[in-house]
Amino acid sequence: MLAPGLDNLSGNLFFHQKTRFMKPKLITASLFFTVFLFSCVSSKKYKQSQADYANLQVKHSQLEGDLSNCNNDKAKLSKDKSDLEAEKASLNGRIADLNKQMEFLKENNTTVLTQLQNLSVISSSQAESIKKSLDNIGAKDAYIIDLQTAMARKDSLNMALVMNLKGAIGDMNDDDINIKVDKGVVYIDISDKMLFKTGKYEVTSQAKEVLGKVAMVLKNQPDIEFMVEGHTDNVPYRSGILLDNWDLSVKRATAVVRILQNQYGLDPRKMAASGRGEYNPVMDNSTSANRAINRRTRIVILPQLDQFFQLLEPKKT
Fold it and tell me: What average pLDDT does range 225-234 have in this prediction?
């Protein structure tokens, strides 16, 4: 055994040698760990920077596209503005030219009339008459407006009459009865099969009920005048006292008029009966269906021409 002092010395030497050999290993491990951590952190930041850069590039592309669209819209609006300004200038120029023409015509009316008088081409009274005609151009425009107002009122009355007739007749088949307005005239077409038996001109009981509903509406319009027209197809017909289709159409029209007068009290002075025979078809007679449509009785609400012509008379001042 070694002495105690030697034993301690030997232990210390062994520890110092062991420590000396371990220090480089510890330093190496520390450096490797530090580099490893730095490498991991840098890699994450790099990838994040790359992602951020890619996003910025996408946004940049979008903004460039938006800017391009805005520039295109701005160019289009600028062009539209230029076109509108040019059109406005053109219109202003036309208005100015028209105003100049109007002023020229006004200034020359009196001059022309004076020259005509001086040349003894027309008399003073004739010159004054021409002057009044020129001055009354505006009155003519007002007159046209009055006519348009009257026509609009007439159309409104016709539509009201049609609605009243349809309301009175109800949900009847349009194939049997048809009410319409054409060129300002109201027409009521009643089919042949509803009013009469084949080749006959006696009105059926079912038809009398329909005629009563029509009469009720017409009776509430005492100023209305109307005409009852008989129509047939082109199939030749002759029976008894009836000579042809024309004769049959007249008989049917007068039969309807007599019922409206005698049974429903309509004023005979407001009615007329006529037969059109086969000569005013609404369809060609090539098929049986078309021939059935042509066989009809039509009530025509006559336009009140006297009231219309009153509008054409000069107004008294």
Answer: 94
